[in-house]
Amino acid sequence: MSRFKAENLFRGTSLAWLVIGFLCVFNLGPFMWMLSTSFKTLQESYAIPPTLIPQNPTLSGYDRILVYGNFPLYFANSTIVALSTALFSTFVGLLAGYGFSRFSFKGKTLLMGAILSSQMLPGVLLVGPYFKMLAALGLYDTRTGLVIAFTTITLPFSTWMLKGFIDTVPVELDEAAMVDGCSRLRAFFSVIFPAIAPGMVATIVFAFLLAWGDLLWCLALTTSESVATVTLGLARLVTQFRIEWPQLMAGSVVGAIPPILLYLLLQNYLIKGLTGGAVKG
Amino acid sequence: MKSLRIRLEHQGYLFVLPCVAMLALVLGFPALMAVANSFSPIWSREFTFTLANYKRLIHDYVFWNSLGVSFFFVGGTVALHFLIGMAVALALNSEIRARRFFRVLALLPWTIPDVISGLVWRYMYNPTQGIINYTLMRSGLVDTYVEWLASARLAMPSVILADVWRGYPFVMIILLAGLQAIPKELYEAAKADGASMIQEFWHITLPSLTRTIVVALALDTIWQFRRFGLIYTMTRGGPGHMTEIFSMLVYKQYFKFFNFEYASSIAVIMAVILLLISLPYLRLIVAGARE
Predict the structure, then answer these.
(1) Chain B partners of A128 at a C-beta cutoff of 8 Å?
(2) What is the pLDDT of residue A6?
(3) Residues A20 and A145 in one domain
(4) Better-predicted residue by pLDDT, B190 or B4
(5) Closest CA to B233 of A78, A252, A79
(6) Which domain holds residue A180?
(7) Which of A69, B145, B163, B177 is the most core-located residue (most Cβ within 10 A)?
């Protein structure tokens, strides 16, 4: 018996390490290439054959986007838009999640089904009419217009995720608090809120990542430099006649830092939030 | 007692109202407008019902091409996300050191915008200056510069590989959570009976994971059908129309050719396909929430 176990463990782990080795090379390789290029001179980035490590490391790529380019502005826009989306979507989703979890009313299943299926509506179906709507409302080419658009993408997820988290808190707990004379609001804040706080963090991070990474809606709903986001700024750099890779990779590094940092800091919450629904239902 | 229940019912509506109203206004209304547009004559100011756009679709080579390209892209990426995701999830679920560290590493590419992954891979695929051809030539696997993104045959597989890098971690993390939820006793019993690793996988792991796998595949399919930034930064649908997935085609029809009505009809077809594919998933989730 113990012989079997040791044998299995050995076979299992050596194979596991092989996969882990692949994971390290595959996952980190492109990041290394991006970082390395961002420190190269323009001349070196055109070298044939390419160099792996910058021969004359320089910050000129970063200079080109941060000092001479508009990236600080794009960065601020992306932050404002993604953060507003994340908070707004989590707030509205929390209200709806609470309603769906704690009340039974006519048409509840239908509404929940409709919210879930709204995720199947592809962005390209909506951008055209939405573009006309925003233009009519005077919200075309504004950050507000973008936030509203992003919120509708993230809201179905936020609602379902938060409903799932609230479902894990036994109804008896908030009922007991309400019988003790707490108002619904106080019962929510003293019983449910502490229990689902980690779930809310996950929802906020998830919505932030989605909004930060979007390109389609930024392309379709804005034109001015003053409201452009990081993804849009990067996409526009490519359309130029000649691609300056060090500058483009420096911009990519800058654009990747907030999501990566947020993920590294809050990864436990995010992973639990993403996987909770899939495994338990 | 009854009046109390009715009051409570009304409160329920109150809580879900902001969410439902927003989705109706910003998703529902534009979606209906798009459907109406798709049945209008092209470049018309007033609405008159016509099937012209759909008739045009049937004879449009570019549309049928895009249908095939989309299915190839979604099928290819979802399948590879699943295979690689499963292999990595199994590895991270075994008893190795520094599992937490590798798990953090594994999800990293998924967190960055697909625009950035598109750009990085585009440079890596560069025939003369890119790292991929350099590595392949150094190791003697190829002896000429391969045109990864400019070749009709290789463009799609190349784009798919770039997307696999960005997309497999999400599937992996869901599968890993599913693996961790399988009771350890099942494996111990199997080991006592002398089951091999492959037998364990077929008879314990896979059956216990069915639900997780359905959810992971469905979510991934939905996301992959909507992918846009990656193709936009890597190929813009080219060379020719070789990588022109639906979202790219509709975008071009809207904002390059300004064929709003025709673009709407393609987008409507795309939405219908997506809804049909995700029907089993929708059923599963809504039924689960009802209990």
Answers:
(1) 30, 34, 37, 254, 260, 263-264, 267
(2) 47
(3) no
(4) B190
(5) A252
(6) 62-280
(7) B163
What domains does chain B contain, in order, with CATH numbers? 57-290 (1.10.3720.10)
Alpha-carbon span A61 to A41, nearest angstrom = 7
Are A133 and A260 members of one domain?
yes
- Whole-number Å distance between alpha carbons of A60 and A244: 11
Q: What is the structure's pLDDT at A10?
A: 52
Across the interface, do A124 and B254 touch by the CB < 8 Å criterion? yes
Using a CB-CB cut-off of 8 Å, the residues of chain B touching A276 are 177
* Chain A residues 114-173 within an 8 A CB cutoff of chain B: 114-130, 132-133, 148-149, 151-152, 155-156, 159-160, 163
Pure H helices in chain B: 2-23, 29-38, 52-58, 61-93, 99-111, 114-124, 131-138, 155-180, 184-192, 197-200, 206-226, 229-234, 246-255, 260-290
Domain count, chain A: 2
Question: How distant is the Cα of B77 from the closest Cα of chain A, in angstroms?
Answer: 16
Tell me: the pLDDT tens digits for B86-126? 999 999 988 778 888 898 999 999 999 999 999 999 999 99
Whether the model clears a pTM of 0.80, i.e. scores above it, the answer is: yes
ipTM of the complex: 0.90
Please tell me whether residues A239 and A151 are part of one structural domain: yes
User: Which of B 136-165 lie inside 8 A of A, CB atoms?
Assistant: 137, 165
Please check the confidence at residue B69 and state whether its pLDDT lies above 60.
yes
Domain membership flag for residue A48? no
Q: What is the DSSP letter of A183?
A: -
Query: What's the whole-number mean pLDDT along residues A209-232?
Result: 93
Q: Report yes or no: B122 and B155 within 8 Å, Cβ to Cβ.
A: no
Query: Do A89 and A166 have their domain in common?
Result: yes
DSSP secondary structure string for all residues of B89-148: HHHHHSS-TTHHHHHHHHHHHHHS-HHHHHHHHHHHT-TTT-HHHHHHHHTTS-SS---T
* Alpha-carbon gap: B57 to the closest alpha carbon of chain A (Å): 16
B109 interfaces chain A, CB cutoff of 8 Å: yes
Whether residue A94 is contained in a domain is answered as yes
Amino acid symbol at B143: D
Asked whether the beta carbons of A227 and A80 are under 8 A apart, the reply is no
Average pLDDT, chain B: 88
The whole-angstrom distance between B141's CA and the closest CA on chain A is 16
> What six digits make up the tokens of A239?
């359309």
Q: B224: nearest CA in chain A?
A: A122
Answer whether A235 sits within 8 Å of B27, measured CB to CB: no
Q: How far is B153 from chain A (nearest CA, A)?
A: 23
Query: What percentage of residues in chain A have a pLDDT greater than 90?
Result: 45
Of B19, B134, B263, the CB nearest to A49: B134
Digit-coded pLDDT (tens) for B200-253? 888 888 888 888 898 889 889 989 998 999 999 999 988 989 999 999 999 999
Nearest CA in chain B to A209: B111
